[in-house]
Records
---
Amino acid sequence: MAFIAWRVAHETAITLHGEDYVYRDDGQRLDVIAEFLAFIVHLVDRIAYEQLPEEVRNEFINGLGAKLAEHMQDNRMDWQGPGDYRSPFVGLLNERFGEYAEESFDEESGPGYSMYRHVGHCVQRHMSDDREHENRWVIDQVMDVEGPEIYRKIEVAMRNLLDTGSIDLTPPSELEDDVYVPKPGEGVVGEES
């Protein structure tokens, strides 16, 4: 799921650029990707809420956040040089998680207007305020186009993930050293036994 989340956030940032929203530099683009990732992690949690036992859901969301923090660390080091980028990203995830929890979400239709507005506002705060490029309108683009498209993609990915049984439903207490060890006769999905 982390790969899909990163790809969706990255593609959305590229789409914004294609719509003539301008990034000052790669750090700013990564800030926008981080905001989209925080939104995506919250969407995944909301979608999984009714589908997974709480312990499993918590483990899944924490694992997703940790993997995305690794991706963010690697990408920021490539573009911005050495530094601790993981901690600020985890802080952002935690901060946004609390904020998005206050926003409306319907199991049938997904995020409400207020959630899309919130993610649009978060993205807008990172965009250049260069008047020439009209980045101040990015909030509308995120609310009306990008946010719903992100939800559509993540909802499909989560439905596929849940339908295929790819999420291990073993409670975390039965994991060895935070790594799932399959029982005899069980293989990894897609692996021959």
Note: The first strand starts at residue 105 and ends at 106.
---
Amino acid sequence: MRSAVLGSLVLAWVLSAGCATLGGFFSAQQDVKEPVIIFSSPVEPAWTSTTWESVSTPQHRRILERAQVRTVTGEVVDVSCFLQLGKRGEAHVPCGQKCVRNGQPVGILTDEGRLYLVIAEEHHPRRDGQVSIKDRFADLMAKRVQVSGMVTEYKDYRAMFVRTLPEEQ
């Protein structure tokens, strides 16, 4: 099960405006690029049946139909500390791990300064607490990763949803 969670990560809401607008406080650039940890999903990115079952309006259906499969590369961050204080990198690993393990959102900060929140794709298992990505991402705090999933957009936000289970439940 742990390798399935390792293989499929969920990326969610992205702040597409980037952080450069805040005077470099949240700079996404790093002097040295670390190797990238590539996650292979247990299955191809797609909406699961539980996500389709959660559709209750035509608007919900349109959102899912407009989603695109994308791959994102960047640094794993604790979204709460990053947005509040600009914390990231190796110096923030102990704090970031603690925050994520205690329920704070996980994100991927791209080299372009876009922040993606990480969310498990499987709707019903996620809603019912049957899947979690917090431990796996906590172990990857400040590492560079590459993740593929389903991306939806809303105004200046983007969400990437990554499969975490090898089969639908």
Note: The CA atoms of residues 82 and 88 lie 6 Å apart.
